[in-house]
Write a structure and sequence with these properties.
By secondary structure, this protein is mostly helical. The chain has one domain. Helix content is 69%, strand content 0%.
Length: 242
């Protein structure tokens, strides 16, 4: 972004710009989508700690896209059909792989043995309803969230289309872009934390093996379908968002 750019809200203060941006970001944040589904699935199957790690990973990806937009890097996605399509196909392949792995794992013997046999059992993880099915580092859950977000070019295009409209005159565009990205991050973390704690309130019904198995299968099918649709749109030239 160049400092000569004049956005829609160029004559407002920094605080006013952030409040106006929140009006755009909040509805998009709470809208049901991949991020919410991924965090809820992780909460049910792997526990609170991993759900928060996934949420932090997702928002690290959001912040990275915001920084890229602030320095103008995401303009490459808007200008290059090849770059946009390549990243879209990579994201589609990752979602399909993730969904397929969840489905395959849900049929593995012993996959859910760490969970109580039936709803309402005691949980070693104070979750939100689940115990770690497979002991793994929280960094893997963080990486899962970050990778899923970073391979979604629509996040970058969203920032490219919106952030320039909220750059007040006299404020360095890089600084303002970072402020807006951090604001979006805070909103996203607050929403995902709300979902994780809501799952915690329902832990009596979310702690059984059957629930975890169904959650994996439903989420797996959704991710496979989403990956397939995104990939098809990219291959047929329908993936452009702008």
């Amino acid at each position: 972004m160049q400092d000569g750019h004049t956005g829609t809200f160029a004559r407002v203060t920094v605080l006013e710009a952030m409040l106006l941006f929140a009006l755009v970001a909040i509805p998009l944040t709470v809208m049901p989508g991949l991020d919410s589904a991924l965090v809820l699935r992780t909460a049910v199957v792997s526990g609170r700690r991993h759900a928060y790690a996934t949420a932090l990973g997702i928002n690290a990806g959001v912040l990275a896209w915001g920084v890229a937009a602030a320095v103008g890097a995401t303009a490459v996605l808007a200008a290059s059909e090849t770059a946009y399509r390549a990243l879209t196909l990579a994201g589609a392949a990752y979602l399909a792989w993730l969904g397929g792995r969840m489905l395959w794992s849900s049929f593995r013997a012993g996959r859910y043995d760490a969970l109580p046999d039936g709803a309402g059992g005691a949980l070693p993880d104070a979750l939100p309803g689940a115990a770690p099915v497979v002991e793994r580092s929280a960094w893997r859950s963080f990486a899962l969230g970050a990778t899923t977000n970073l391979l979604n070019p629509k996040v970058g295009v969203f920032y490219l289309a919106t952030i320039p409209q909220f750059l007040p005159d006299g404020v360095p565009h890089l600084l303002m872009g970072l402020l807006l990205a951090v604001e979006h991050d805070v909103l996203g973390l607050a929403w995902l934390a709300l979902l994780i704690n809501a799952a915690g309130l329902a832990k009596r019904w979310l702690s059984g093996r059957a629930i975890a198995r169904v959650t994996d299968r439903v989420t797996g099918v959704v991710l496979l379908a989403l990956g397939g649709r995104i990939g098809w749109n990219a291959l047929t030239g329908q993936a452009r968002a702008i």
